[in-house]
Amino acid sequence: MLPVAATSRQFRGGIDLGGTxxxxxxxxxxxxxxxxxxxxxxxxxxxxxxxxxxxxxxTEACQAAQVQPSDLVGVGVGSPGVIDEATGAVSTARNLxxxxxxxxxxxxxxxxxxxxxxxGNDVQVATDAEFSLGAGRPYRSLLGVMWxxxxxGGLILNGKPWIGRGGAGEIGHLVVEVGGAxxxxxxxxxxxxxxxxxxxxxxxxxxxEKGKDTDLFKLMKERGRTKLTxxxxxxxxxxxxxxxVELIDDAVDALGAGIASALNLLDVDAVVIGGGLGVRLGExxxxxxxxxxxxxxxxxxxxxDVLPAGLGDTGGAIGAAxxxxxxxxxxxxxxATAGN
Length: 340
Known about the structure:
Elements: H1 4-7, E1 12-17, E2 21-27, E3 33-40, H2 47-65, E4 75-79, E5 82-84, E6 89-91, E7 102-103, H3 105-113, E8 117-121, H4 122-133, E9 142-147, E10 151-157, E11 160-161, H5 192-195, H6 197-209, H7 216-222, H8 230-238, H9 242-266, E12 270-274, H10 275-293, E13 305-308, H11 315-323
Parallel strand pairs: 1-4, 4-8, 9-12, 12-13
Antiparallel strand pairs: 1-2, 2-3, 5-6, 6-7, 9-10, 10-11
């Protein structure tokens, strides 16, 4: 058996950067997870603080896998925002603190970790992973919907990622109500304004401050969180919290209308639903979303399969790790701007 130092050059790192958590993993050549670490995403500060937390999480994952970051073939990152694949810059990642402008995330992480870093859009790399390794394997065309802090979309068309001119997959910003609720993107009526966890929290807080009874914020404090995480929403639903139920019902309705609208244009083979809330709430809510789609679906006699993400909550990090594979050994992929 070869010593770790001799075999570690086959290992790759993957980092899934989300609005509430940073998931870092180390995988081998067969994509088996050898070590992992999860850190909360900083709620204050700016891009340098986020980059430092990402590097710390990756270093811990390497320690668990008994390798050094500099020994990795490379590290892939799935990030929200607008991605410049050539330079590794990330801009307008609005669900992250202070990230309105552009920041050279790739070069900064490469300097901290001592290995090459590739950046892709968080939702597209998660969709790529589901297509290659997860629930999307049987299909040639796929819509990935990641329901979390925001609502992002990734597309596989005829076996290849579709990124358009860089903005394809923005399913969270399909309009489901003209002149409707204000979205974190600044526009009105977007699906994300009703289904994104950040927007749901803002609506819950406003209702709570006006006297609406809810345990959401009590549960948040009990868990030591500063945001309403997916686990907080799940626990509130389990308790039958009326405000949580109402807001999640609104989210399911919006997801049904928005996903159906995307399908009316694309007519793909399958929809895979993941992301923090999608994975946490699981199959029962995937089925609810499927039913909420049907009144809006033109081809309702032949609906696509609607499936929960097969890779669970590590799918984004596994997809990111695929970015670090040599190009000759992986399927084509791209970056997009979905799920800001």
